[in-house]
Amino acid sequence: MHNNYIYIAVMALVSYAIRVLPLTLIRKPIKNRFIRSFLYYVPYVTLSVMTFPAIINATQSPISGAAALIAGILAAYLGAGLLPVAVICCGVVFVLELFC
Amino acid sequence: MNNTKSTTQKNKRTVYAFSKDIYMRGMRDGFPIALGYFAVSFSLGIAARKAGLTPLQGFFASLFNNASAGEYAAFALIATGASYLEVAIITLIANARYLLMSCALAQRFAPGTPFYHRLLIGYDVTDELFGITIGRPGYINPFYTYGAITIAAPAWAVGTALGIIAGNLLPLRVVSALSVALYGMFLAIIIPPAKRSRIIAGLVAVSFALSLACGYIPLVSSMSEGTRTIILTVLISCAAAIIFPVKNEEGENNAQ
User: Fold this and answer.
1) What is the ipTM of this complex?
2) Where are the domains of chain B?
């Protein structure tokens, strides 16, 4: 059995190191093209992988999760910000699950 | 360190000096971010609860991590009783983008800015706070970012704790609706760049497809979700970096 506080300490340590090491150590731009490219693509890939198909399994019914995914993509595509997109996704699920 | 050269920095000292106006401006710009954080961290709290965290543990986890995707991925692993090393690796992978953002921010400190400002800014480099900090012209005034952090970080931590508490009290339908808030925020981060770049749009589609496929492929499907996320992220990002290397400035300017 693992200890939750150690988990939290591990997470905190890694999160802080990732942010503070470049800030303190790197004063010049990274030159290596592969590393730059890799770091550039990582956020989009991670977030995509974590969003789908997880969003469909997060809700009571897969249909409302799928609808939230489509609504969220549309809203973000049309320029809605962080909070509006999150609220729209929640709203779609809530309304649909009243009927499903 | 450039601290010793003081003569040329006389007129730049104002750039990083404390100013109430700048601090208040940061708080004002941080307000909508804090609102968004509150809503999203509430849904993060629901995930933390599934991992068996108490409200206090959730509060500390969020206070010291300030990472939506990173925390979510870690909680998913903790829920399965993963090893500390696995949690460290997923935190590293899911937060790898902050490495790039910190590299970009590191370039924007005025010469002579006291070292401790770098340590403090490093506390809360997130997509949104990075966005508003780097979005300001010229050198960084850390007090602008501190203003935003002052209001955004507590909202994030309190929201997580409340999510853990209320996830228990709210009707199932409400929890179900709130649990997609986090994914909504992820979409709000990945879709706008995908709209601007066909490569990123393609990557998002490929990531969706492979992530779905991994649930069905024998052997891979028996791995934990967190491990699959690590493997897929490294593989797809490496492939993309080899096939579509970014041009010089792209890596930093579009990372917002």
Assistant:
1) 0.87
2) 13-253
